[in-house]
Amino acid sequence: MLRLVQTLVFGLLLGGVYALIGVGLTLIYGVLRILNLSHGQTLMIGMYLGYWMYVLWGVHPYVSLVLGIPIMFVFGMLVMRFILKPIENSPMRNQVLVTLGLGLLLSSTARLLFTSNYRAVLTDVSSKTAHVAGVLISVPHAIMFGISLVLTGLLYYFMTRTDVGFQIRALSQDREAARLMGVNVDLISQVAYGIGSSLAGAAGMLLLPTFYVFPDVGAPFSSKAFIIVVLGGMGSVTGAVLGGVMLAIVETLAAYYVSPGYQEVFGLVAFVLVLLFRPAGLVGKTRV
Amino acid sequence: MLKRLSALVVMIALCCFTLVGCGSKESQTIKIGVPIPLTGAQANFGEILQKAYRMAEEEINNAGGVKGKKLELVIVDHQGKPEAAMASAENMITTDKVSMLLGGYASSTAYAIAQVAQKNSMPYVVDVASADRVTQQGWKCVFRFSECSSMAMDGPISFMEKIAKPESIALIYENSVFGQDSIKIVESWAKQNGVKVAFSDSFMPGSVDFKPILSRIKEAHPDIIIPVAYLTDAVLIVRQAKELDISPKMFIGAGAGFVLPEFVTQAGNASAYVASASIWQPDMKYAGIPEFVKKWTDKFGTAPTYHAAAGYAAIYVAKDALERAVSLKPEDIANALKATDLKTVYGRVKFEDFNGYTNQNKPMGVMVQWLDGKLPTVWPAEAAAAKYVYPVPAWNERK
Question: Tell me, what's the pLDDT at A19?
Fold first, then answer.
């Protein structure tokens, strides 16, 4: 029993950051109807940002979030304005190809600037653990989970209580109607993309104390984010949170009870099963 | 009359040779095709190898090249993907008209290249990949001068037999040819010697969280934990083992990630006392190592890894064979490789057939251990530069 609880705790804590990655992607999809294949690379940029702030100025990765989130927000707005806006009205597949290319551009630029060396940040909390009622809790993962929760909560508040949040949601419901109601579609699109990017960047900075960064670190997260979002329901923030936590728990359970070599298989099996019985995802509504 | 005639014949022959020489571009250079990963998760090691290859290439060409011709390395990125490795090897043979192949890096890509090489009867020198199967197929064109997995653990196995004498061991290995092969040899050794394998399971390379597998190992209470992993996973395994307070008598890595300088910088104090199998260390006594280490350190600012030494030596093995080959026909180069007996910075190189292996070199296996941020050879005694620490202090007993 204790083992099961322990495994669930490992999974849940990892799920926090998975959720954060998924929420960023689903927001971008919900508002802009763009499948962003460069999401993992955005996360990689966040990781490098945190890494350099730590190496150059000794800023702790958790503290660097304060500066990192606005930087990633501006980065996202610029990407939207200068890369995605010009192809707004072209077919879906072209937009997907552009984000794929953007991802390659980002990781190749990182390779050019920082080489392919693996870099890691060793902080005072990097390998600390706490014992709670016989259950081991990894301190950095718990902090990662806590901050993810706070950020998701803030996003929820922002989306449901503020004027800009209303506009973003209006845009995701009906682009043309929102435009007719006086929503500045271009600006709000940039804001939405900026938020999505800053969430991915934040996830990267949160992963930094326990993981490592190199130019291609993002690619697996891009595909993981995609699974999380489809699992939860395309465009649904609640769905992405559920999808992220579920994927992490399934992977961790499989790693403990079956074999870590097959953990991703079980994640994908869960993914297929959900899609079989709920084609629109856990909380998604089928769109026409 | 006869004299004049023979002079004429000689002149005509000379003209013919010069004409042929001018007409075909290949004869100006000798090309070696080198597919390695320069992008993707293994790019870091591809870059190290590339530096080593270029260093040897430059030295050889400055010293007059091979057979009076310039040596040219055709280095192509295969992204760490077997299918891309196959395609680039085929392309090198048909389009670039290389004389031989070399490199490949990881076992899965080297195995793919080896298949292409054998199919096209193109000599191929494997320099880093260690999976047994690469030289177990009876392929006459594939030569490996690095160790294969079954030898890679020679150092740790003799250490366990003579010194550690563990009752139980735990094995954790990446889900790849390299991981499976390395573990097979330890498992069969354990079986023959009555050592209990308390735990054995694989993991996906690139995992974020090793705590589920590590907590199972903790429950098994093994004397020695043997992880087989590349750098990033190796770092996370020891860091998370420290987090979970897993204190075996020793961690013995299977080379790869555990012997790199980054291991100590990224794993921090979790790296202390971790031992590993190794084939090459900068403190070894092979001729040429001090000069090589100095040149490398001066040029790149870091100590060379075993990849660097292997890559550098591989080019010299190729050069030596090309020099001795009767012609640049693939079969002549293969024959020359087969007759290799060369002292390199990676030890003595001889390609032999034994125990089901074809064209396999036998480098000496040693064990190293991280002590005060350095990685001296600690076993066998005759090669040791420092005394091993066993059993290692538990996490909570350390400063």
Answer: 92
